[in-house]
Each structure stands twice: as structure tokens, then as C-alpha cells.
What we know:
The structure holds two protein chains of two kinds.
Chain A: H1 7-12, E1 19-24, E2 30-35, E3 37-40, E4 43-49, H2 53-60, E5 63-69, E6 77-89, H3 94-104, E7 115-127
Antiparallel strand pairs in A: 1-2, 1-5, 3-4, 4-7, 5-6, 6-7
Chain B: H1 12-19, E1 24-29, E2 35-40, E3 43-45, E4 48-54, H2 58-66, E5 68-74, E6 82-94, H3 99-109, E7 122-133
Antiparallel strand pairs in B: 1-2, 1-5, 3-4, 4-7, 5-6, 6-7
Amino acid sequence: MAVQLSPKMQEFTQEVFPAFIGTMRKDGSVEMVPVWFEQKDGSFWINGGTNRGWFKHLQRDPRITLLLVDPKEMFRWAQVEGRMVNWAEDTGGDHINHLSHRYLKTDYRGPRTGRIKIQIEPLRVTGAIDGRR
Amino acid sequence: MAAGKTASALSPEVQRLAALPILITVASKRADGSVQLNPVWFELKDGFIWLNSNTSRTWPKNLQRERDVTLLLVDPKVPDRYAQIHGRLVSLIPDPQHEFIDHLSDRYTGKKFRELEPDEHRVTLKIQPVRVTGALL
Lengths: 133, 137
């Protein structure tokens, strides 16, 4: 069942830094990469090309773990265990452009076609922000 | 994994990043197959990645069970620059005198590690890098 983010987590997830996402490959190994994210209405949203490894992994096993770390103060961190509940084509690249404005305050310069946006529902939050190990 | 880079082939860029006092993210697998991520202190030395933990933490237990580990190093100034390191836990070394955690603490804080809790036992994890991918090769 989805969990509600605490007020501290609501604030923390408005800060601008990448999320490190962990997904499971077919062979059981973990892939981990940094991605742009946005937290909105309690869900996490990420964006990528349909050819990204992590998207293929999520279609097989929707479980995904996000690690959020303040790069300036690395002891401020949170781990979000979640699952992909929805994905949709990012028509016209509107969502990646929105993320680009969140991170770079400018229009997205990369390809806007062949992209998808993914909704992740948080199931458990641990880490220093909520003080839960 | 045979085609991967071995420790001696870690690029100068990865080595430069690893020399900074930044945290490395450890990905391990829980018994139910879900992915656990933890930011931890580390040191790259003699071609191995060295970590240290309290034995009661979950992530070292996960690594003892699975042995395969993924590590992520990200340039804090340029997040697009990162190295994903696939490795293998090759040994688990008790740290009863907490010498190694003091050493790591010195690397990050310039001070010895805090006093251990009464039932706290430290262990050093030695990880062999097997393959490096990402935007910092």
C-alpha cells in the first residue's frame, strides 16, 4: 500500500538533486543510475527513453528503490522503496521539458521523442530525513 | 562479466572521483529480492573498494548472502558524471579495534570515529570491482 510522505519528506523532495534509482536486471543484478525526478501529489515521476535499461526492468519487475541524497550535505538522505504504478508516453516531451526547468531552469535540449514518463508510488521511506533506519 | 574492466583498469576519472570525500551508494538485495540503497563511507585502495559497517545493519547482511554488489559514484557538482561499479564482496574482515572505521572517519571528518555503542561490532567489507559502466569511464 502506498504511504504518505511526511512533511519533512515533502519538503526534502522539493529540493533539486538527482535521484539514484535501483532496478533489477533479468539476471538478478542491480542497475543503479542517477535520474531527474519530481515528487508531486505523493508520487515520484521520472522520465527516460523507452530504450533505457531501467524501464525494461520495471516492465518485468515494477519494484524500484530511489535514494535521495543532498549532494551538499550527504548525511541528509532518504531511501524510498516503491513500485511503478503507471507509465505513459511523454507526448511532445512536455514532461522532460518540465523536469529540465526544475533542474536547469531552461528548455530541454535533448530529444523530445520516444520518451516515457513513469509514476512511482512510495511503499516505504527510510533514512535520515525521517530518522528511520 | 569477463569483458568488464578489472580494478586496475579503473579510469583516472573514476580514481579522481573516488579520492574525494564523497559517499558511495551501495545497492544490495534483500531476501525478498527488493533493492536496498545506502549511502556509505568508502575508500578505494590497492584496487579494491573498502567499506565498513555495524554488523547489525541490513546491507552488509544482504551482501553476505548475495556477494554481488552494485556501487554508484556520482560527481556532486555534475550529476551526469557517474560511475556504476559492479563488484563482488571478496572478504569480510572483523574490525574489533575499530581501526579501519577510525581511518575512514579520518578521511571524511578529520577525526576518529565516535565511541562504539555497547553492542556494536564493526566489520570491514573488501569489494573487488568487476565492471564499470556509466558516464565516467
